[in-house]
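INPUT
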Amino acid sequence: MRSISREVVHKQADVLVIGGGISGTLAAIKAREAGCENVIQVDKGHVGKSGCSAFAAGVLQQVPFPGDDFKERLLSETAYLQYIVRQDRVIRHFEEIGDLIDQIEGYGVQIIRDKKAKRVKQKGRGRYPMLTFPGPQLMNALAKTARKKGVQQVNKVMITDLIRSGDYIIGAVGFETTHGVFHVFKAKTTIMATGLTYYKSICPGHRNCTGDGYAAAYRAGVALSGGESNDNLGHAFPSKYDVGPGMSLFVGEGGKFINNRGERFMERYYPTRKERAPLNYLTLAFAMEAKRGNTPIYMDIRHFSPRQVDRLRRAIPLVIRGFESVGIVRKGRIAEKIEWGLTAYLGRTGIRVNDQLQSSLAGLYACGEAAAMEAYTAGLAPAASSGGQAGTYAAKQARGMYMPKIPPRLVKELRERTYQPLTRSDGVEPDQVLLSLQEAIMPYDVLKIRHEKRMRKALAKIETLREDQLAILHAYDPHYLRMAHEVRSLTLIAEITLRSAILRKESRLGIREDYPYIDNQKWLKWTEVENDPNGKMATRTEQVPIASYPLQPRQMGRHLHRRWQIAEDMGIISVHKGKIHWR
Amino acid sequence: MPPVIDEEKCTGCGVCVEHCPQDVFFGSEKKKVPVITFPEECWHCYACVLDCPAPDAIRIRTPVPMLLCYK
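OUTPUT
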């Protein structure tokens, strides 16, 4: 076994930001702009190179344009999130993001403008246009700006636990991934900006984003919410080539999906917008086609002109370069249809936050995709706006605080817990456990098209993994130690997700064969998960205060989910005794 | 799939090692040509290729099975 350093490094911060993506970097920048002296930003990889943000495809959705009808926009966003979203948070985002985009340009991000120096309104998925920028340039500029503004960036340190004292979060601990040096970050306020997870499958951020922030928060007793809504941002990607994002751009430029019979099936599943349907309906169509045996599915962009391909090359250079490297770009055109598949669902057992982005424990904030889906913090633009908000609030709170003290006994306990997989001489390896986990959770009929019996089966497998395998995970060096912790986090996320999905007995946030209705009478609620004092996973629900929001659902009773209705109209299913039957 | 380093063009600056979010170059020594210890963990983020200051010193390969699927 490679010897691990016995060194412990102590750092202290007024605001500690965990996560080096767009949300965390904006939080760190805004904390400094709010006058905070000592801001530390930590990432298990490298700030600006890690996670989903580093794969930023080059589009900013959820941004307003002059002349937009705001009420209509609110309705569109709220309806897409099935009235479970906090409408006050949606309103706040659209009020603030305009100015923030100006500031982001000021930080050096090159939003693409036309010859008249106006920002280009790019057509994409959905009803509203997007802004574009040269992908990797976004995080390069933001990370650099943060450094210039005096943010201390600590790279290659994986945070494994939050430090809890009473009901306060007073910092975090972790280890440096090269030599294993233990790090203790004492902080007046901590911001979790660790994004979400894709269970290490194909998607941006897939191998790097492993839900460690959610897991650390859960263990510390922080309330999490919305785990069942793992699919709002479920994605479709080239299934054999790991190129990353860009689908919105292909589709915006006129790309088509065809099944194995050459049918452009989106014409039937979503006649109005076809491929530009909201992502969760697009991916559901894929799943239904799979259930009916019509896969593989292909993206057909053979009809794109060389000028269109060139435009794509500017916005998503690596994707087009990838296609060039496999020889499918000929005479300036994409000459072959490209097999397309679903990514694993995202796992997003988000941290519940209030109006100031504070979690249920004092001193801990959450922003971006680390926060619960109801807070409307997902997507590059809301991640940026919520990050900026969290940074400002955290800085303000820190101003009035003394630096906390951490009992040495607690540091020793946390260090032992962090290094535990290194102490065994044999056991099970992280990648073995990961594979079993992926096999349990990834089949599309577990969490994409749901049924209680399939979810319970998956949950039983996850519980077995947890009981038998996690306890004997072993690692020989800091690199494997990181993988061991990642697998632990992923197993926990999978369990929370399944329990939340089983709890919600309707098809909102996840289509169910056994509860195909949207039930606005009984289920206009948020589900919540918490580690109770006995160490058991407690679940509960909370009513959405729908009457206090500007918009209410048109149908307040129970109705068949629209996607099931369309499938019934298409003749591919029938509804019998309240359950779905496939034809 | 794994990055490939051209040992003659590589200057040993270590930027790829520092920037890789997945620590694919774990175990590399300073000022030497990096080692690719965990090739299977490469997720094609291209941080190494984009940030390398020496032209063509590092590239990312597409594995053969992925080349065949478009036929």
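end of record. The two ends of chain B are 21 Å apart (CA to CA).
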